[in-house]
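Troubleshooting log. The previous structure file for this entry was overwritten by mistake, so regenerating from the original sequence record. Sequence copied from the archived sheet and checked twice against the printout by T.R.
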Amino acid sequence: MPEPSANIRVASAGDADAILAIYAPNVSDEFVSFELEVPTPEEMRGRIVATLATHPWLVWEVGGRVAGYAYASKHRERLAYQWSADVSCYVDRAARGRGVGKALYHRAAERGERAPARVGGIRAHRRLSRRRIQARRMA
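Regenerated output below.
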């Protein structure tokens, strides 16, 4: 469970360095981002600003330090998908297993329900997560 002093807020360009510190190992050490090179701080600032123009970008902050983030993005270009959005969530390795990702996804879903675009993938993600948890309990 996230710490009681945790705060979920809208990200700003000033969070780019902290966000990049969380994101970079996912590019350089893992294969979850589908990027081949770690973006520069300037690129990350640009992504945050561009995203915030149309979609939410949230950070989970505790003790003044960003320890996780989630953002929504356009699902597809086709007109039929105009009300759908994808959500990405990254959590600092030291903060994993504490409910940070869950809290960010829930808040993103809340914002998605109020926004013109629906946050896609949330329900599918929840079902998949439940199945994985149930499978682990049965093993």
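Residues 11 and 58 are 5 Å apart (CA to CA). Archived copy saved in two places this time.
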